[in-house]
Write a structure and sequence with these properties.
heterodimer; A: about 120 residues; mainly beta; B: about 120 residues; about 0% helix
Amino acid sequence: DTGVSQDPRHKITKRGQNVTFRCDPISEHNRLYWYRQTLGQGPEFLTYFQNEAQLEKSRLLSDRFSAERPKGSFSTLEIQRTEQGDSAMYLCASSLAGLKPRETQYFGPGTRLLVL
Amino acid sequence: AQSVSQHNHHVILSEAASLELGCNYSYGGTVNLFWYVQYPGQHLQLLLKYFSGDPLVKGIKGFEAEFIKSKFSFNLRKPSVQWSDTAEYFCAVRTRAGGGSQGNLIFGKGTKLSVKP
């Protein structure tokens, strides 16, 4: 399977703990996105990378959230001092952005976070 | 701020009925438009996309969508639904300020489609 993969698929943690999620994009995709989806809502943009550079961050991304893509391949999303409001599905998507603006994002299965 | 509205939260149809799901966006400039589908227990999959050209685009599994610029709409249609079309459908927009791509997608809240056999 050469699609976007995410690990873990499920995470249960206690309030105040730190959690880290990993995303492996489709090989050779230069853009990687993180979204968050809560019940009854569509995905909401958090941040994205082009290669290893983080190009944009949403206002949804509080100081407790940090994302990295150190070698321009996989990415990690860390949430520090988790709160119950962080409970959501965290989605990763990747794309190949080139000269022609016909970029299409492909999504992974997501990591479902439950903060107790 | 840009937004995407999907008019129907939950649609229930019988097999062979025709489907139209509404999607409107708020942005006056150039846009790229997408419909994604999420089948039960599966991840988001691309159904179809519009970048430019013919406003009527065809996707997988017999779905099509029409971009009407004057109405800021990109409605999804299928002439005859099947039980296997039961899923949640999301409309998404990417704005293209300055001729380039803004990158991130803006999603609607989704429409759940239930097809009765």
